[in-house]
Amino acid sequence: MAFDLDTKQFTVTILDSGESFRCHTSQTVLSAMIAMGRRGIPSGCHGGGCGVCKILIRKGTVDTLPLSRAHVTEADEQRGYSLACRTYPLSDIEVEVKGQDRHRLSRRPRYGFV
Ligand code: FES
Fold it and tell me: Do 21 and 36 form a contact (C-beta atoms < 8 A)?
């Protein structure tokens, strides 16, 4: 019996926001997040050029398209950093948001009243 990798899905958990969603192996983490209506990973260009969607893979394994060395150095990549718009899950994964806009994820107001 043939096994179709395109039908395989894994769970992506964003540790910062507590959100989780399912992602096909043929779908980037960022596109799956957006398709599921989640917003835990800030994004910009969606093409690997801006670095806004930088993440750290805390648990699990992934495959990636080539990463911009301006945003993810080779040493970063070896430590688990990636770009959500260039990353495909190969297992259930847990990620931390590391892009420059990660401060937007704060769930509590920083000052005064809401
Ligand atoms: S959204 Fe720009 S690098 Fe991913």
Answer: yes
Per-residue pLDDT tens over the stretch 20-31: 999 999 999 999
The rounded distance, in Å, linking the Cα atoms of 35 and 28 is: 11
Ligand 1 contacts CB of residue 83 (under 6 A) = yes
β-pair partners for 89: 62
Fold category of 8-101 in CATH: Ubiquitin-like (UB roll) (3.10.20)
SS3 7: helix
Give the global pTM. 0.85
Using DSSP, state whether 77 is helix, strand or coil: helix
Backbone φ and ψ for 6, nearest 5 degrees, come out as -65, -20
Which residue is it, tokens 């209506």?
37
99 lines ligand 1 (CB under 6 A): no
Q: Which atom of ligand 1 is nearest to the CA of 44?
A: 1
